[in-house]
Design a protein that fits this description.
This protein has about 190 residues and is of the alpha/beta class. The protein has a single domain, classed as Rossmann fold. The protein is built from seven helices and five strands; from the N terminus they run E-H-E-H-H-E-H-H-E-H-E-H. The protein has a five-stranded parallel β-sheet with strand order 2-1-3-4-5, sandwiched between helices. Helix 1 crosses helix 7. The relative contact order is 0.23.
């Protein structure tokens, strides 16, 4: 069965990023995929220490709540990251995850240990910004680079500016519908 992994990078539960991610996972589940959601703010983990020990064997020397997430990231057929935009960038929780995945890049690119090099894995990005002129470019670039590093093809995004109050996205039915379509499309694309 296709596995779609949703990663919430927002510290705010039931906020706009969380709501959109849930809708995307609902769409994936309705399309027949197994879905799993990880809330980064609920995990206990430290930032990358830049030790480069992962260059030896592709394993991070820090054993914490990210250790089992590495397995899920390699197992997933598709990954959806949802993050609010802070100062034109990703939330700190999301950025910490990406930096800590240096070990997966080493595994794939330096050690050539792809979980399955012929498997078509996909990634999507959901971002919400409070400013009507929210700049998503930097965050999109970082997520694209992350997906490339861990063997996922960038396959869609929902970028929603002008939404800041908790739950405000519920008054944006088009964005909610787009999120469900995104999840369903990812589930169907990986079958």
């Amino acid at each position: 069965m296709t596995l779609i992994l949703g990663i919430l990078g927002s510290p705010r539960r039931q906020g706009n990023s969380d709501i959109l991610l849930d809708r995307a996972l609902k769409g994936a589940a309705q399309a027949g995929a197994e879905v799993q959601k990880v809330v980064l703010n609920d995990l206990r983990f430290r930032a990358c220490q830049g030790c480069n020990d992962c260059h030896e064997d592709g394993c991070c020397v820090q054993w914490d709540d990210l250790t089992p997430l590495y397995v899920l990231l390699e197992k997933a057929d598709a990954v959806i990251i949802a993050s609010p935009i802070y100062f034109s960038g990703l939330s700190s929780q999301t950025k910490l995850l990406i930096d800590r995945c240096q070990c997966l890049w080493v595994r794939n690119e330096q050690l050539g240990r792809y979980s399955s090099p012929t498997r078509k894995r996909r990634g999507a990005f959901i971002a919400v910004g409070g400013d009507e002129k929210a700049i998503f470019r930097h965050a999109v670039g970082e997520v694209r680079a992350f997906y490339c590093a861990i063997g996922l093809a960038y396959d869609g995004e929902i970028l929603l500016p002008g939404v800041e109050s908790k739950g405000e996205v519920l008054s944006h039915p088009k964005a909610l519908a787009e999120a469900e379509l995104l999840g369903g499309r990812l589930a169907n694309a990986t079958n």
